[in-house]
Design a protein that fits this description.
alpha/beta; Rossmann fold; 11 helices; 7 strands; about 15% strand
Length: about 280
């Protein structure tokens, strides 16, 4: 697979240090078939959320998504990929939330998707599973998360269309090809202004940043508007996630590239901190 830039828990007492170290030395699973099945509550929660979103998944996509979740829960005890450990909550708050952008992204055929700050694989892996014509690059700077992402793409049969890069998002825009991506996704990572600055240099004409946000985003939205005006993008568009999915306050922020982005962006993180939008 070739994509632009591809070269590049819960509460309770902590176990004793020796136990933690021994647990970390144990090989982590890479074969979904060897893992416990997901409980019925997971399927019930995901089926309900998908109905609320108007999404129908094919059997291959559903198998890949379920396999991703099974692997996530197995690895999570060792490397803490998510604070959400109840399978039904993973279905609703991770999988369904990720797929809430499916129709937005599906409007562009054969999409190339750059997912920055992929972490436990959301939203990139569920979107890759659901969009059979897509090609996806998952980017994360944390080695243990990169190891999980690589294992997950292989275990779910998505390795032919999904790559993983151990990198900071800035390096994609500074070192990789500019203007080669159709969609940049970012969920629960970074301010909107920073995401606009990271996304616009790597998006092609008409490409879109899709950012997952929740709560009061008025202040960061104003900063994002200033960044958008300077970096060649249009006005941010806010799309509420369907209320029946029970994700209160969750919105998608869509920012479309409408003009060339000036050279020199994205800036180094230290510069962005000193000179925010």
């Amino acid at each position: 697979m070739t994509t632009p830039g591809a070269a590049l828990s819960g509460g309770g007492a902590s176990p004793p240090q020796e136990a933690r170290l021994n647990r970390q030395r144990e090989p982590l699973p890479t074969d979904v078939a060897s893992l416990p099945a997901l409980p019925a509550g997971y399927a019930h929660a995901l089926d309900g959320a998908l109905r609320a979103l108007g999404i129908q998944l094919g059997s291959e996509a559903r198998t890949a998504i379920d396999g991703h979740v099974r692997l996530l829960l197995a690895w999570n005890a060792a490397i803490n990929l998510t604070a959400i450990t109840d399978p039904a909550e993973v279905a609703r708050r991770h999988v369904a939330d990720s797929l809430s952008a499916l129709e937005v992204i599906r409007s562009g055929a054969h999409a190339t998707i750059l997912d920055i700050g992929s972490g436990g694989g959301f939203p990139g892996l569920p979107l890759a599973a659901a969009l059979a014509d897509s090609r996806v690059l998952l980017v994360d700077a944390t080695a243990k998360k990169v190891a999980f992402l690589d294992a997950a793409r292989r275990a779910t049969g998505l390795a032919g269309r999904v790559d993983v890069a151990a990198a900071r998002a800035e390096s994609i825009g500074l070192r990789g090809p500019r203007g080669g991506w159709d969609v940049v996704t970012a969920r629960a990572v970074g301010s909107l202004a920073d995401l606009v600055e990271l996304a616009m240099p790597v998006l092609g004409p008409g490409g879109r940043l899709v950012a997952w946000k929740r709560g009061d985003i008025a202040v960061e939205l104003e900063a994002a508007r200033r960044a958008a005006a300077a970096l060649g993008s249009g006005e941010p568009e806010i799309l509420p996630v369907a209320g029946s999915v029970d994700l209160p306050g969750h919105v998608l922020v869509i920012v479309r590239k409408v003009a060339a982005t000036p050279a020199g962006f994205p800036r180094d993180p230290a510069v962005r901190r000193r000179r925010p939008w």
